[in-house]
Fold these 2 entries.
Entry 1:
Amino acid sequence: MTWIHDHILTVVLFIPLAGAILIMFLPKENKNGVRWAANLTAFLGFLVSVPLFFWFDSSVGEFQFVEKVEWIPSIGANYSLGLDGISLLLVLLTTILGFIAILSSWTSINERLKEYYVFLLLLQTGMLGVFMTLDFFLFYVFWEVMLVPMYFLIGIWGGARKLYAAIKFFLYTLVGSVLMLLGILALYFINRSQTGVATFDIVALQNLNIPVNLQLWIFFAFFVAFAIKVPMFPFHTWLPDAHVEAPTAGSVILAGVLLKMGTYGFVRFSLPMLPDASSHPMVVNLMITLSLIAIIYGGLVSLMQKDWKKLVAYSSVSHMGFITLGIFTLNPNGLSGGILQQINHGISTGALFLIVGIIYERRHTREISEFGGLSNVMPVYATMFLIVAMSSLGLPTLNGFIGEFVILQGAFEENWVWAALAVTGIILAAAYLLWLYQRTMFGPLDNPKNKNLKDLNFREMMTLVPLIILAFWIGLYPKPFFRILEQPVQKIMERVRPAYYAAHPDAFGAPARLNAAAQPSASLETEAAAVRSAEKRAGASR
Amino acid sequence: MPNYYIQSYIPILMLLAVVILLAVGMLVASYLLGQHRPTREKLTAYECGITPTGDARHRFSVKFYLVAMLFILFDVEVIFLYPWAVIFKELGIFGFVEMLLFLVIVLAGFAYLWKKGALDWTKADSGGL
Amino acid sequence: MQTSDLIRILPEIILAVAGIVVMLLGAFQKQNAGRMHPAIALLGLLGAAGAIAYQYPWRSLDPAFGGMLELDAFSAFFHILFFLVAALVVLSSSEYVAQERLASGEYHALLLFATMGMGLMASSNDLIMIFIGLEISSLASYILVGFRRGVATSSESSLKYFLLGSFATAFLLYGIALMFGATGATNLTEIHLALQAEQNTVTAMASPQLTPLVGPVPTALVGLSIALLFVGFAFKVSAVPFQIWTPDVYQGAPTPVTAFLSTGSKAAAFAVFLRVFMVALEGSAQDWVWLLWVSGLLSMVLGNLAALLQTNIKRMLAYSSIAHAGYILVAFTAHSEEGVAAVMFYLAAYALMNIGAFAVVSHFGNRGERYVEMEHYAGLGYRAPLLAASMTVFLLSLIGIPLTGGFFGKFYIFRAALHADLVWLTVLGVLNSAIAAYYYLRVIVFMYMHPAAEQIPVERVRPAMGFVLIFSMAATFLLGIFPQAVLDFASQAAALLLENLGNGVL
């Protein structure tokens, strides 16, 4: 037990890889064997990650489950893993979405099955590595390696314009990441000249004092990489192509996890390593402006889509805008909301893509006009779609509401205009999702091809149910998630705005409040009070 | 550039000047002093006193080139023996062995050529050469 | 001359003997009885590698032949690389030689002679010796390029290579002559001292090893000489603007020979390039760094842009080889110990992945190299999964995706460049390496994502070829995951190379 406790991250990280290697040696003809092996691997991967949630001590600010082995000593790169609250949530999201993605492909993929699952599992290891690693060099390795399986997934199993989408995705991301590599090297050299130690250790690099000019340069090197990944407004053009052309599982992973790597990058690297640049007014204004553009533009474009999947893809642009908005409000509410919204978006949009995938598998079209009145023939499907859509548009009691509300709270705290503009994003989301729902589920069942559609089978339900449970859990009782985020948010705040907590002793993650958190009732009350006061203000602004 | 550097080239320059003057001078002198009575016979190309036949630019067998190349190759190698012979006594047994090795290598090349038929004038295809 | 001198060139002696033996065997055996030739060639290479290993540690070796040759760790690194390259080329060309009915004896003999010349280049510490080594390897490669005698393009590329190569060598020779005129020395260490003395006249008076020339060194002459030396070397490494020959020669040459040229010859050229510029001319770095800067940038940009437009895989790899010369020049521009080590590491990684890629190209090419267009590769991912998978690994490594040697090589290059404050060059370099991904990916796209228009025949992979593929793939991964050993070797060699110079470096 202690061995597994000490090496749990390695185990979680490499189970998918081991499964991929195992599958490579299975005979190609045995399709069900390959399917079972892949699904079991993914499920096992999910199971071993569950203890992380229980073993994780949210009152500790340091990284947990740390493992560290020397890798390339001459440049100071280590194999080092560890989790804090932010990465814990993302790792769990990855393991669960990874399993669901694999489960969802059981019948939809029939060609080159073996390669498909190998690539999915490799991708899984790559993504987990990105979130787990505490070494910037290793981070880069995972970040780039992950491109390859995703490229093949889109390029081989994708839709009509798969080649274009695959290459566009690859090149876009590669251009961004090579610039990030330079940023990493710059930090590395700065650290070496300041401390004399050659290291890529993320914790060490978070404690540097860098002149603000230099910080801005490095910030923009990172910005390109992360903004392309998120994707933020002018860099988003790869996303609709990649999403639409990717197979369902690919879209789920892409939207659910891959995009989070960009926002994770901002939270993990840009903010704490380059605090002066991140809080530079020019940068903040730029980031907020881009986020608001993404929110509104993404929503408007979604409204106009005729293709179901493209609509969901563009809605991602809008939702990711909320996350970056939250992060760059640079206050505890915005930050924690942004981080939680990453998870929410993974759940809701992942589920939306599953919904699209299920209907696509039956009809081989995604034209919204082809559908209508589906609720008559597929009641379970329609119900689940409704819940998922509500969760995505931010209905209270569901997860999307919590994240967006806290983000808006944070935005309001800085500038009411930001919050007001962002709220239009929520309205737009309600518009395009409800309209989509109406066009597809309600109305007359006039297309004869839709008359004999089968409702969800057990496997398909099983892909959606866990996500719906999570959506309700976060919507009804988000406290454990916020508690996990308190310490990391506090650490980021202390880097970015050191004076913030002195002025706002009640704020989320404030040291004083953390001490009080020992008595749960007190903290509950303050939280409730905070929500109440914020509601009042939000109401006033409307 | 310092003076002494150029100075060391002055003798060469002088030699160059003398050579050019002499060559040009001889040509000019023969042109000015000689008599010019061109005949048809005098204007034809001089080929060892025999009446020239055909065009000078016709194709030669590639074998000539091969022989010429081989000749130069071995010629140069033989020339290499000359300085060696001059200081043979100083080099002693070491030099002897060294030259022996050198000749063995040359000989290996020669054997290769022979076997390949490069020296065989009548062979239609000179076996890869 | 002493015995130790002979031991220093023992690897070259062994290679020469093996080459002569193979050559004679080829002549005296019956036609097509060439099975022994590769074996003898491999044995010779193994023996030569053994002769290098025997002299370990290379740190303490004295120069041989009065300072003409230096078997230091730097040269040992390159020797081992050349032997590896040559051995892989011998193994991977066994199919090709049989298929095209090439004269096996001469082919292997010339490979060995070329390798010997490269070995001499790597260890020579004297401009004259460098010239001799360069000529030995160049002459052999001119012939190798034209080895498909019946094919017009092969002869054409041979002639082109020969003519342009002779020009470049002439430039180099002129540069050597001028350098001798300026400093009175051809030995690299002496040239270094002479140039250093020029910069510091006080030590010049005191230094007893000073060259026979009295008085200051004429700087204009040195500058001209550096320019000419640069031309000669830039041609050999196919850096812009002296790259014109590369695509034609690489395309026309037999594929295994192309692999040899693009890895072995290029590495050898970089070895002398490094040694001459870093040892002899380090003192006047400000005169040549900008040359490298411009040439490196242009090589990357032009190589990559031209490669984007190619449909022939050999030609595409030729242009990519120009681009890779550019990346290497980026590290060279840093002219630091790190930079030298980065160049060495990159050359090793590049050699392995490129030989692998060319081995696949050679195998798919089939008789007469008929199938070397990208469209021929359509659908191969499913018809020849293992070959296509290995090609994918090599191409990803050429792009520079992590966990492959190519990534680490690039990382090390850009690290060195950034450390030397070459920010813009580094930024342009990494962007270039991202652009380059496009044309490598296109091959992958054809292999896996295009339906096959024409079912090209795929021969069974023979064991020798299989070994080459597996070896290069394993080595590519090894260099990408556990690069430490090679990295240490390269760093120590670089440190040792620059150790005694003690000026200006870092």
Entry 2:
Amino acid sequence: MSQNGAGPVSVWKILKWVVALLVAAIAIFPIWWMINVVFALPGEPVSLNPRLWPTSLSAGIANIHMIFAQTEFLRAYGISVAYALLTIAGVLVFGSLAAFEFSLFEFPGRRVLFGFVLLSLMVPSAVTIIPAYLLTSQLGWLNTMQGLVVPGIASAFGLFMLVQFMRAIPKDMIEAARLDGANHFQIYWHVALPLSRNAVVTLAILTFIQTWGNYMWPLIVGSNAEMYTVSQVVGLFNSPLSHHTVDTVMTANLLAAIPPLVFFLIFQRKIIQGIAMSGTKG
Amino acid sequence: MSLRRHLPHYLMIAPFMILFAAFFLYPILSGLYYSFFDWNGVGTPNYVGLANYQSIVGSRDFTRAMTNLAQYIVITVPLGILIALALALLVDSFTGRWAGFFRNAYFMPVVLPAFLAATIWRWIYAPNFGLLNMILGWFGVRSINFLNDTGTMLYALIAVDVWVSAGFNMVIILAGLKNIPMELYEAARLDGASKWQQIVHVTIPMLGPVLFFVFTYGLISAMQVFDKPWLLTGSSFTSYGGRRHALLFPVMDMMGRAFGGVRFGEAAAYGFILTVAIVAVTAFMFALRAWRERQ
């Protein structure tokens, strides 16, 4: 538990380091390997070269250029970015408006409505996905951006997280703003929202990672090639019927991995806190 | 008067609640309704009573999917948590920059989209030229077709699953570890407890609620596994589940009936059967905890 201090190097200590580094290698290696395949000298079969290091920067750049220029990947990338950004905007706006009320005010029906939303956290998505698809289809929203985005906006998890956070806002500050003549919406906009910036940013990042990685919903709602998201294109490139070569497929995989990995490297603390919070308070 | 006073509150929650009702509550109710109909999604639904439920439960695929699921869950959930716990203790034993480095490294697979984890591992598992077979080849093992051999398919899935979920659970367990008061370890040490005894008698009992959450949550998500087995087996709506359906799972079976067989009523019924199973397992977990606490 506590550190051993600067004592003599024991067998245990060495063993601990070996295990820790080995596990780190297992966790990171598949990602590292993907990079190496993309940035490899062309012409050498993967089977003869385990690709432990990247060998050619220009080959990698050529791969990336090729995949954007010659495949449908660029459009899919645009659709995935739009899908993620619009979902984030919807989750944050709708969620924070509702969380503001549920956390700071008392009104008839508050408990029942919030209870309903909390209960929905326990309902598996397996039961809603088919009828939600049928509703989206009846609305004529198949293969449209609203069909991808709108059904995912009312995120019970997001609301719950924001409510947990906004509860900590002192009621005095709300009262003070009201006495200063702020109306209800102004209190939300100028007091509650700035004070919950941390939670809002964390929720935005978690929503991004989740939406970017969503495979099932785009698979059924955006089944036309014009609406393919990155998840679907990657799935198709990797399918047994795919006619793409290893470097093309790996380039697609790498480009799909970059946004969440970059977000993680920048916001690691917030992401880990967000996950830990949802676990320890759940 | 009262309504006017409360009107701003309702206006602010309205956008969320309307979407919530439309895309969450309504689908549950309409799904229940459709589950009693034979329907291809466009024509007129044809009332069939409980026939959908009967044909699902009586089908070979359902039995196969449920058997696979049981085998999968029994291994993947406890194994994933055990590894996550070990990793959390390992990370916790480091301090400063290295603790942060190892934590982030182990967490990295979690941020990766699940669809990507599955596709990268497909390449690693590939026969002959795959990385894993290459490493095994150094030790003289002949090439194994991990994702097409019914003896290895389930374990190949579990390895990917643990690779992803261990980091997620580790972060939650780490947060739990930080909440254990240092004095408890001090007291145990004064009583002459070894490191191992401290883990067994202080750490694990104090982590009870966190481990319960991680276990229950892991169980619920494992019961709905879809992306990873779907992509590992290169599935499509016309052919899924891999060789001899060795990686067929309930959600895959449900999706196949809906979008491959175009039997939406049956798929809706499948969703309810699955939900009842998940709720039953969750309720059992909570009952178990209540019983343990009373002991």
